[in-house]
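Let's practice the habit of predicting before peeking. Look at the sequence and jot down your guess about where helices and strands might fall. Then scroll down.
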Amino acid sequence: KADPDLYIREKDDHHEMIATYVDDLLIWSKDAMSIIEEFKKTYVLKGIGTPEYYLGGNVEHPIDGYWDKLGITTAVSAKTYIKNSIERFEKLFERELSKENLPMSPGDHPELDDSPLCTPAQASKFRSLVGSANWIITLGRFDVSFAVQSLARFSMAPRMGHVSRMLKVFGYLKARPNGKIIFDNSYPDHSKFATDTEVNWVDFYPDAEEDIPTDMPKAFGAPVRITCYVDADYAHCKLTRRSVTGIVLFVNNTPIRWMSKRQKTVETSTYGSELVAARMATDMIIEMRYILRMLGVRVETQSLLLGDNMSVVLNTTLPSSQLKKKHNAVAYHRVREAIAAGIVKFAHVDSKENVAD
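Done guessing? Here is the structure:
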């Protein structure tokens, strides 16, 4: 129920799963070939075996001694899609892309660009760049998500400067095509982040409790630990003065969800922008907890939210604090209620360690 393209069934001490995307299948099972044989009775299948390339992404199986020692056997990357995209765009723009050290120059503001508007043909090429870059982000390269979301805003009326900036993003990917996400099942250390577990929220949110699905499958395996980092770039957009939210969510030590998005409201303080970001992160945590439960995964009692704004952390974790500004108060109470329900723990992390920054 968390994903209409995923099928799951209980099998002895584990679950078997089939993920579908149009005519592609991924099967998880201790005996995947027996399921494939059933499909063969109805369908003609090709490319059967351990996945190496799926929906544009590479599925890698690190075998060197370093990863083996850590118990890590699988990683995903977008290196083939990046390689193919760069070759395509170099032909399209009739130039070789230079390798770049950063996807976007520090302090750059594409919204202030006043270069000539693109012709319809140039605008079409710009949208191709944005579309490919967004899929690369989906495949795991969230290191370019801030640059891409900053430029994607101009898809309907891009300027020549925006095209140059998108080519710089691909120049960065050309220099670093092999970035990958490793699937690390080990637990992150939450003990170094102090949270008060004895706070009494009953007077403020007497009915607060997590909405546990009643139809979730039986859970197997050890519980997973969710860690979510959140940050906000205050008033980043110089035209609208909207802030940008950054979120990275880990399941155990593997990044699973990420977001870089301009906020929908203009906040008048760093506190307000960080609070809006914390509300978005709380919603992401609640969504992920539901998805995992519907996949038959045990979820640790509380998930950890980490932000670097001490005022937001204190105001949302101390029952006695108050906030009356209406639209900020909605975000404020959303986070506090999740904490009161025991869904989230909110702790402070130093900015230098905040991976969402």
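How did you do? The first strand starts at residue 6 and ends at 11.
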